[in-house]
Task: structure prediction
Amino acid sequence: MAAQTVKRRKKISMPDVIIHTILILLTICTIFPFYNVVLMSFSDSVAISKQIVYLIPTAFDFSAYSYILHEPRFLNAFLVTIFVTVVGTLINMLVTLTGAYVLSKSGFPGRKAVMSGILFTMFFNGGLIPFYLTMKNYGLINNLFVMILPVAVNTFYMMICIAFFRTLPVALEESAKIDGANEIQILYKVILPISKPMIATIALFYAVDRWNEWWFGVLFMTDVNLLPLQALLRELLTNYQQLLTSISVSSVVSSSSALQPEMLKMAVLVVSALPIVCLYPFLQKYFTKGVMIGSIKG
Amino acid sequence: MNLLGKEMYKHRFLYILLLPTLLFYVLFQYVPMYGVLLAFKEYHIREGILSSPWVGLANFRELVNQSDFWQAFTNTIIISCGRIIFEFPTAIILALLINEVTKEKFKKFYQTVYTFPHFISWVIISGIMFNFLSESGVLNQIIASFGFDKQTFMTDPGLFRPILFLSSMWKEIGWSAIIYLAAIAGINPELYEAARIDGANRFQQLMAVTWPSIRGTAAILMILAVGNAMNGGFEQVFNLYNPGVYETGDIIDTYLYRSAFGDGLSFGVTTAVGLFKAVLNFILLYSANFMVKRLGGEGLV
Result:
């Protein structure tokens, strides 16, 4: 591989030019829509109404952001999403790690049955209505835990954890066992401390999933105060007029005509995506290392 | 039996640790499964799922008479086939292209950029798309500046499917490529060495070394894609579609949601829709798996 690199560095060949041209064009296509949204969220309303927000910033008007920060409904949705993300990720990790640790061991009665029971759920489910009715029976309608408990384990992520635990040396555990530790203590004191990078990766993936929650909000929340941020964003995008008349009596929108609907929408988009942008450097550090490799074969 | 008891007692702490996981799968995966009985019942809220009266296949008979259902069914198949034809190969092509980049730094940069949209939800992506593709959006500004007529992208039934494919590619292609790149990273460099000694050029190396080593990964992803064919991508379609594009864009899942919570089909009939879909998916998965094995590949199950 090294020899190959050295050889190619000498001159830039035609295929290289073509490959880089394609990849750079693709890069622009990927970044530009995001860039445009950020631009629109703080450009002034005159520019938007003239439709000239285009490539370069025309103004720095942060009124859309200050509106979001002062509108109780957005703040509320924020709190809901933060709760779901923090508590949800904690529960995700607790259940996934304990389960994965046990299932990474062989030689206890029932392991095979549990494993195939879990795999079966990847390929078959009861469908939307039975699921909805069951959650209703559990009393989870208008309950924040409906966005946490039914998604407590992502089978795919659990398989990654199992594959990882299998790679750990057995000797560590054996010596702890000789010292008289039981499996719960071993997991807590021996296994988890040496699995930190894997734990961080899975926690990040779960956190992103919980932050992006909107569907169970739409499905199970009839009380608008319990909608997570992204479900509220969806309302804002699809039912702008209705949403506005229902929430803004004394708000900025009615008092100043400066705030354009487009600006507000874009600002909410930016705010909803911001935490992911912040987490992304940490996320991508791990997934490229091939944490996902073993997982694909389940 | 006594031996089994002893063996279980020995592992008692493992069972305690397994308990939360077991509870999760039973309560949230298996309990809802018994609800599929509703597909053969008439649901009465007061009586619950178990005591509601049996109606045999009446729900399915009502279902096959719904023209909207058949429209959604056809759309789902067309959209899923489109995804397999257009989206599936592009991820492989992208992975091969990225792999041809020699400088590690650039490779990493491209990967980082392309993977980012995967972590953004379809709600946010749909907002970005409505902004980008609207009447006054950037794309129409560009079109207008070249002197062409503006298009109504998001409400044109003829454009809806291409928009689905393109936006899904835009969002997921980098992520899908990573799985292939991981497989490529595992290739023994000596294989390339040997190919070069035999006089293979870059393209020949790609066909003789790189492709065979990711074929297995591609086969498994293909099985999974076929096993999902009846889903058609609910999150994406639900966030992008509108009544104007139902004729080409309504899929089984969106139809099911609307008829259960909006247009007032009974829960019995909509459960039948779900069961019909799940069974078809299951059959498709196993057939695809069988085909792959038959063709000499390694299957999933």
